[in-house]
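Box 3.1 — From sequence to structure: Acetyltransferase
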Amino acid sequence: MKSELEKMIAGELYFSSNPELSSMRHSSREKMHLFNNETDARKRSELLKNWFGKTGENIYIEPTFSLDYGFNIFVGENFYANFNCTILDTCPVTFGNNVMIAPNVSLYTATHPLDPVERNSGWEYGKPITIGNNVWIGGSSVIGPGVTLGDNVVVGMGSVVTKSFPDNVVIAGNPARVIRHIELSDSNS
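Predicted structure (token representation):
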């Protein structure tokens, strides 16, 4: 029989009020407090490296930063997130290399059943988010559960991304849609 933690990570229905998960979220709140009140950027980077599931060497996140757990966040090399980033990581959130996130961006793996009886009973689930290499997410954008963005994607400011997109596109809007294809030069491919 799976634990609520195992069900959560697998994207199955689970109860978030489970004591183990509640304790883990409490621990994350303590780590967020330390991170968000640390003025030394090197110390903040080390806190993240010891908190996340995986990171590259070069990782920089501005405070304030909010998340659910931390262990479900996997970050490649050269990661930057500006002020007020939120990552709800009930399921894995994976970032490739050279990802830039503008201020006030939110990534949500968490979701709830559509049926009101199920939803009101406390059931939740999540869907993983995967962000490719060389991605730039514009300010105040929201990335929803189950979204995958390919390599070299640019997300326009204020976008709401509810579905996945392939490599080499600029997307924008609510809901986001392709507004331009990116032609890479031979030196960038």
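Summary of the box: The chain has one domain: 4-180.
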